[in-house]
Write the structure tokens for this entry.
Amino acid sequence: MSLSLSDLSQEVLATQYAVRGPIVTRARELERSGKAIIYCNIGNPQALGQKPLSYVRQTLALMQYPELALRNPQAFPPDVLERAAELLKSSGGGLGAYSESKGLRIVREAVARFIAKRDSDGSLTLGADPESIYLTDGASKGVQSVLRLLIASDRDGIMIPIPQYPLYSASITLYGGRQVGYYLDESSGWSLSRQELERAHARAVAEGVTVKAICVINPGNPTGAVLDRDNIAMVIAFAKEHGLSILADEVYQQNIYRPEDKFVSFARVLAELGDTDVCLFSFHSCSKGFHGECGQRGGYLEARNVSSEVMAQITKLQSIALCANLSGQVLVYLMVRPPEPGEASFDLYEKEKREILGELAARARLLAEGLNRIPGYSCAPITGAMYAYPRIKLPFGRSDSEYCLALLEETGICLVPGEGFGQVEGSAHFRTTILPPREQLHQVLEKLENFHRRWR
């Protein structure tokens, strides 16, 4: 007897993930037929030419094949040799062995030190507990673990920003929950207001939804907006009043492009406010920032103000998958434990870091300015993350999905339509990355303008 769609989970059938949806499938078909494709659909830096950091790949090489240190020790800086030896000793069986379900202790301790250093200053000393940190296969797995934990019935709701990253809508649907969208204000640079949060929450409650948590992406994906400290404090106050947990997606915390903007973590503001009754789950990843190690799948989840009984359930969920992959765990260690001044790798590491972040900032400016020069396009400043989310004026009755598919067929540019992220009814958008090299971005902008002038 053959398996048919009617035999499958309805939640699986209803789940959509626009970033790798039908348009990307069509792009792959066109590419196989010989058409040149520019993939602007996903934040995948190394696929678009970003070079890996030397410090990272040297350490990983020694972790994968320790005999290299014996055969040619002169090929590796002393601090890399020391780091690899320390990690190998702490991992027991090396990268080929399981770690404990939470992840290697040495890595979780390094993450705790990183968080404490990042969020502490003269006015506040913030601690972090390695036992409240879980190493995950990218930040996405951490997000999914928390959503799986929170969604207990089809009446349970999770507040998500609109526009949002489709990981959230897809996972909530997959786990049988309800999406409670709150709109970001495009006219004021995708800002977030308490009034809109209250509106979205009240409407959900009136519909019989039990709202469990609010998700915030900072810096924003796909918007590129950066929240300030007051905005974060407002979200915490809102969550406290309504008894909500907070999911803080902070994977782009190093991707900030204006001097006047600064990343402020939810953990930092929570500590400033002295709130101990708001559950906070924070996520970070080595896929973004200036590392761009998407394929290594390394990330972490930190939990604050979560009871030991609930923490035990998170550990159980982690245990089902045994542990996060060891290469990704090492990547997280290298992200939070970079070379220090005086170490052999420091100067090259800092040079590569400056070049990558400087180039991303230049591309962010180039893309936003270029999009705003196209008649019928409007793009907020790209102040963080790796994306632009321009509004586009389309003929009546036409959708951004139709637009993006036609654009792909004609020009080879692969974008994600705004329908996949959510938008105000009657508006149209697309998401594009800032990652293609500058000369290619110029080509993309020229093709977009020529296509938009003709498309009807």
Notes: The first helix runs from residue 10 to 14. The chain has 16 helices and 14 strands.
